[in-house]
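Reagents: none. Just compute today. DUF1329 domain-containing protein.
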Amino acid sequence: MKIKTCIALALTLVALPAAAKVSQAEADKLKSTLTPMGGERGANKDGSIPAWDGGYTQTPSCYQGEGKRLCDPFPSDKPLYTITGKNFAQYKDKLSAGQQAMFAKYGDSYKLNVYPTRRTAAYPDFVNEATYQNALKGDLGGGGEALVNTITGIPFPIPKSGVEPVWNHKVRYRGPGGRRWNNQAAVTTSGDFNLVKIREDVRFTYSQKGATPDSLQNVIIYFLQVVAQPPRLAGQITLVHETMDQVKEPRRAWQYNPGQRRLRRAPNVGYDNPGTGADNLRTNDQTDTFNGATDRYTWKIVGKKEMIIPYNSYVVHSDKYKYKDIIKRNHINQDLPRYELHRVWVVEGTLKPGTSHVYAKRVFFLDEDSWQISLVDIYDRRGELWRWQEAHPVQAYNKTFQSSVMETIYDLQSGRYLVQAMNNEDEEAYEQVFDPSYFDPANVQRQATK
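Predicted 3D structure written out:
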């Protein structure tokens, strides 16, 4: 009898939403001392991080129009200083453990060019207003695995629990949907690589203007991935319907193998299962730095701090550079990325007892102005630093949101690394509003077998 009572109590606790909404007075800070996304509006003490002035919302003269490459609006900017293997110790308080490990391992070649901080992140008015309403109404349910009463904007701009910033990253506004090339390269210790070309179509159902929680039918993101090359992988398809309440219904996923010519349910698409074409250098939940269920970790907000992170990465995104210009031995060509000093939320995820994942601990560093996970320190089960991950974002000034244009995952133990989300030699990502029926399994099956 006692066992039955305990089980019933546990199920009740899982079903109850955790209080995440804030008071009216706190929410009103989003219109005064905080940015609409929840960042601090003011500058830091020495002015090295300027005040947020609304972000970068103009169109630079170098931009050639819809569908064309996002050009660098700051071509005259020069590095303020360069961090190298010889001087990185003086900047340790602003570097993650992974960044410091890179200097220790590759100090002769690894460097960070640190530019003036430009707080370019900006979002449409309807997203800002939705974020304000979410602050007042939004909750968590299902032990943190369900969003309740949030839509379109950041769910928890003034976070109180560790899982809330992770949700903010997962559903941050990136437009209503679109198509991009997510090309990736697994790089050997000698610097050799083979390119895997992947096309991705996505509908951000949660982000649709005018959407309501009920209109989502429990799907926040529709995602379709098609491998274009190399020939041995070409035609592989992954289809995902990401759910808003993952207790009510976990992620729906399917995979298509050209040899079998059937689209099959694929419950293994998630967590620490190997990512497509990544030569075992990333897990499924490392696409977009982190995606999917959060339930295998206990999440804790460590605090906020000033960190040197990738930002305004227009140069490394330029079509002037071929993949061979970017991908080098040991690490990418560090002449190309831009780094800036920004305030970040530091969130630590520790693997729960009784659950499994190849990563025992992950430390996320999330940009306060966009909720993009910028850096990730990743630890193995021995407590040793294993991998380190970074995302290089740009402000999509033509659409008013921030988006990552390249991600790297360095395996500090093997000396290999992965570059993903590149499109330098392919067309620019573009906005497209796909109908939900496009992502219906039956439609995907028909398209795959044409």
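Confidence is low (pLDDT under 50) at residues 1-18.
Action item: order primers for follow-up constructs.
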